[in-house]
Specification:
alpha/beta, 3 domains, six-stranded mixed sheet, globular, binds 1,3-dihydroxyacetonephosphate, binds iron/sulfur cluster
C-alpha cells in the first residue's frame, strides 16, 4: 500500500499524548503490558528508537521478526514496532484470531513504495516478450503485499538481506533469469557475490518502462528493479575514503542496501543481524565504522564502550519512517487496545495474502 493510501486510512495521534511526560508514558505502557501479559506481543525492529525498543518483547531484523510472527500463535494483539511492510508480513503469517497494529500508519518504507503492482505487471509483460518464460521474480521483503503476491503467483519467493544469497541461488536453480524487486543494490551486491558479472545485470526503469543495459539480452541473468533505500544511499565512497584517512586501522562494515561502490570500498558487508553479530564478536579495542541506520549504530556505540565505533557518515542516517514510532504512538496504540477500540489495524486483503504467503513460505522454508 502506498504512503498516500496509508495516510488516507490513518487515524492520527490525539494531541494530548504529546503533552505527557516520558515517565508517565513509560509507566502507563508498563501497566498495560503487565495487564495484557501474553495476549500482547510487541516485536521491535533493530532500527527502532531506544524509547520504543525498551518495551519490545522481541527484537530482530526483518527475517527474525517474520519468523517470530509465524511462530507466535498465542498473542491476540501484535503491536508492531517497525514499518508497514513488516506489519503486513506479520499479519499474513499469523492466525485470523491475531490482530496486528502499526502504532503510526505513517511508518512506511520509501523503498517498498518504489515498486507498485501496476508498474510491476507492466514490466513483467514486457520482460516476458523480451525473454520468454525464463524469469523468476524475487522480492525483498521490503515490498508491498501486492508485490509479494505477484512474486508468489509466478513461482518466486521473498528474500531478506539475511538470506538473499541463499534465495538467489535457489532462484537460479528454478529459472535462467531473476527479476529482483525493489532494491537494485541488494540485488546487485548479492548476485555479484555469487559470481554474476556486473555487465550481465540490467536495470529495469519503471518510469520509462525500459531495460537499461548495454548487454545483449541472451547474456542478461539478473534484472534489477530501479529502487533503493534513501537511508543506505546516504553512505558514499567519499565517506569510506575519509574514514580510511582519519582512522587507518578502522574496519568498515556496511549493509548491502548500500551501493555496489560503497560495498566494494568497505571491508565487509551484511544484513542487520550480520552487522550486529560481527560487532558482538569483535575483540575489545577493535575499531569500526558502520554504514547502516542511525538508531542501531547509536545503540551499538552505547553497548560496546570497549570498542571504537563511529557511523560511516558522521552526519548519521536515520530512517525517518521507522522513527515515526515513538512513545506517544506506542502508548496510544496500547491504550486503544486496552479500551477495546483499537485503531491502525493492518489487514492484508485475503486474496492478496494467499499468494503473498506462498512467496513468504518459500523463503521461510529455506531459512
Ligand atoms: P534487515 O533485513 O537487515 O532487517 O533490513 C530491513 C531494512 O529495512 C533495512 O533497511
Ligand atoms: Fe525502508 Fe530504508 Fe527505512 Fe529500511 S532503512 S525501512 S529500506 S527506508
Amino acid at each position: 500500500m502506498s504512503i498516500t493510501s496509508l495516510l488516507q486510512q490513518a487515524t492520527l495521534l490525539p494531541e494530548h499524548y504529546r503533552t505527557l511526560s516520558r515517565t508517565d508514558m513509560e509507566s502507563r505502557i508498563l501497566a498495560i503490558k503487565k495487564k495484557l501479559g501474553r495476549q500482547l506481543f510487541i516485536p521491535g525492529h533493530h532500527y527502532q528508537k531506544d524509547e520504543v525498543i525498551q518495551f519490545a518483547d522481541a527484537t530482530g531484523d526483518s527475517l527474525q521478526l517474520a519468523q517470530l510472527s509465524a511462530a507466535n500463535k498465542e498473542a491476540k494483539h501484535i503491536v508492531f514496532c517497525g514499518v508497514h511492510f513488516m506489519a503486513e508480513t506479520a499479519d499474513m503469517l499469523t492466525t485470523e484470531k491475531q490482530h496486528v497494529y502499526l502504532p503510526d500508519m505513517r511508518a512506511g518504507c520509501s523503498m517498498a513504495d518504489m515498486a507498485d503492482i501496476y508498474q510491476t505487471e507492466q514490466a513483467w509483460s514486457i520482460l516476458q516478450q523480451l525473454f520468454g518464460d525464463t524469469i523468476i521474480p524475487l522480492t525483498y521483503v521490503n515490498s508491498t503485499a501486492a508485490i509479494k503476491a505477484f512474486t508468489g503467483h509466478y513461482g518466486g519467493a521473498c528474500v531478506t538481506s539475511s538470506n538473499a544469497k541463499e534465495m538467489v541461488k535457489w532462484a537460479f536453480s528454478q529459472k535462467q533469469r531473476i527479476l529482483f524487486l525493489p532494491d537494485q543494490h541488494l540485488g546487485r551486491n548479492t548476485a555479484y557475490d555469487l559470481g554474476v558479472p556486473l555487465e550481465n545485470m540490467a536495470v529495469w526503469n519503471p518510469h520509462t518502462n525500459t531495460l537499461e543495459t548495454e548487454q545483449s539480452s541472451e547474456n542478461i541473468q539478473v534484472i534489477l528493479w530501479k529502487g533503493h533505500c534513501s537511508v543506505h544511499e546516504g553512505f558514499t565512497v567519499q565517506h569510506t575514503e575519509m574514514v580510511r584517512q582519519a582512522h587507518p586501522n578502522m574496519r568498515i562494515i556496511v549493509h548491502p542496501e548500500c551501493s555496489r561502490e560503497v560495498v566494494a570500498a568497505a571491508d565487509d558487508a551484511g544484513s542487520t543481524k550480520y552487522i550486529i553479530d560481527t560487532i558482538n564478536n569483535a575483540p575489545s579495542g577493535s575499531a569500526w565504522a558502520i554504514g547502516t541506520e542511525m538508531n542501531l549504530v547509536n545503540r551499538m556505540m552505547l553497548h560496546h564502550s570497549d570498542k571504537q565505533i563511529i557511523s560511516l557518515n558522521k552526519n548519521f542516517c536515520p530512517c525517518l519512517t521507522m522513527n515515526r514510532i515513538d512513545l506517544p504512538h506506542l502508548l496510544w496504540s496500547l491504550e486503544s487496545i486496552e479500551q477495546g477500540k483499537p485503531h491502525n489495524r493492518i489487514q492484508v486483503d485475503p486474496h492478496i495474502a494467499e499468494e503473498a504467503r506462498s512467496s513468504l513460505e518459500r523463503m521461510l522454508a529455506r531459512g
